[in-house]
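G., the chain you wanted modeled:
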Amino acid sequence: MKHLIRRCAACNIYTLQHACPKCHSQTADPHPPKYSPDDKYVRYRIPDRYTES
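Predicted structure as tokens:
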């Protein structure tokens, strides 16, 4: 599902555009991905979380 609102990582403003109107950098979706108990990649993601620290 696509979200309409996007956030600029450089200047932390929210916009509906794919490029920031203030600094012209790319914007990203600020919402986390949905959690699914049937996620087939969970065994790869959970060990990565604990080895990065």
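The chain has one helix and three strands.

Shout if anything looks off.
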